[in-house]
# Entry
Amino acid sequence: MVGSATVQLVVSVRDLGVQLDAELSKVASSCFYQLRRLRQIRRLVGLEVTAQLVSAFILSRLDYCNSVLAGLPRCTTEPLQRVLNAAARLVLNLRLHEHTTPALQQLHWLPIDYRITYNLCLIMHLDKISQNVLTSRAPPYLSDCVQTVARSSRRPGLRSSDTAAYVKPRCRTKFGEHSFCFAGRAAWNSLLHHLHQINDTALFKRRLKTELYPISLLVVLVLLDAS
# Structure
């Protein structure tokens, strides 16, 4: 109950084109549907065209507003990772039971968790019209929820005030760490200092992926050893 109104429980919600449910099954099922359609023409178009089609119909769905998934456990994002693995098998024409880690490495695709980190860092670097967040030309809704250490009047004189790091808010619950105000700043602050100084968007995206990819590959190898 909210006042005199009754809020009904629903299985999934849709906001700005983002379909959310408990297991992300809506997004996964729509991606697998597209993969089945693309598989019918895989032999006709070849690897390069298939990769372009997968990027347009699959990767775009996985990357769209995926920053809202920040902080979710791996078991929740696993359906999206299975979609990415299936897409890699389709592009490289692999069999069902072949390992996808070498395929993702060959295609230079980041795993889902690191694709989320990538987009978080990109949002922190640029707003939607490719303006730098640090120049205070960003939309108010974005600039109001992120603040650099240098701009914080509560922390003057710190050595960190000379950097482009952001003030990370304190969260009393794990649920609060899913918010962009926390997850975006945490992702940005985890980057190497030289990435903070890059103003060119294209260069930043290349350098960011170059930094994240070896880390993601190492995590995957550790998980495979543990299993």
About this structure: Residues 118-226 form one domain. The first helix runs from residue 25 to 39.
